[in-house]
Fold each of these.
Amino acid sequence: MRCIDVPDAPRRQCPGCFRTLAVNGNNFHADALCADGFTRKCADCRNAAERLRYRLEAPERARRVRERRAERRAYFESTGRYEAA
Ligand SMILES: [Zn+2]
């Protein structure tokens, strides 16, 4: 069997946690807009950031749901098709 030089998988340092990781779908999120198809920050950093953002935006999300419900209620009341339970 011949020995073939297999180049190492590309690795990249995450600018968030400074770990150097192999660039693949396990360590980095896929993003078609990034040069090599993966995001700059590693998946762990991105997940943590998204978790934080989701929590921080919870009040705003709840406010939008309340507004939308009030809107729809007003609409159905105006059409006479709304009956409060
Ligand atoms: Zn990271």
Amino acid sequence: MTEPIIRVENLTCAYGDETILRDVSFTVETGEVFVILGGSGCGKSTLLRHMIGLERPKTGQVWLTGEELTATEGPARQALMRKFGVAYQSGALFGSMSVLDNVLLPLVNFTQLDRSACELVARLKLRQVGLEAYADYSPAELSGGMQKRAAIARAMALDPKILFLDEPSAGLDPVTAAELDALINQLAQTLGLTFVVVTHELASIFAIADRALMLDKGAKGAIALDTPEQLRDQPPSDAVRRFFHREINKEMA
Ligand SMILES: Nc1ncnc2c1ncn2[C@@H]1O[C@H](COP(=O)(O)OP(=O)(O)O)[C@@H](O)[C@H]1O
Ligand SMILES: [Mg+2]
């Protein structure tokens, strides 16, 4: 049995005195598409931000690729944080730069490659997300779905083993969201990338998730971890059943 690529142990997340998540533990296997789901405000982004080291846990540990992020400081922490890529909820490409320059940025800043090598790598990343023809466009000239793909290309610039995506399909129409889901699956399958994806879109959950971790605001923690089909067909609690059935009803309405 290989070591899981991510291990979260007894993680408790708080802002000041307000505990958001209590005692959350799970592992993610290499190559898995792991979804974090749950209603608005339940702590999905909070969990993600703790997993990538943007927030410090109140208690508990996070291991990424065998290294304990929560016990790593200084340059070693910076190096560890460069082993994964992140695309945030807001997308956040730099609007004053071309798409290519956005993807070039981490390569120029964090590698020793010369300019032409950086450009070669950046163009490869754009090709992997289907945007090679748009290198010279500015982000504002791209559709919402293309902006998301460009943000993923930038997150992939330094060849991360893990990609973290926070609500990648937010604000996209269903067809474009489905295309993004297909891209995530393709990158996981062809490159062996591990994905941690925050979403509350039921269609996305079923399209991409190998397993899904469900958080709950009332419980202040994780209430289920399983395949989406299992969560739908054998919900371990009313809250899980309600989440899946309310969403299904809404989509069929
Ligand atoms: N930086 C912060 N400081 C204080 N409270 C926060 C902060 N970020 C989020 N929260 C609170 O934590 C809870 C969970 O937020 P969040 O993780 O963003 O939920 P989700 O992503 O599931 O919608 C919410 O009640 C939110 O108001
Ligand atoms: Mg969020």
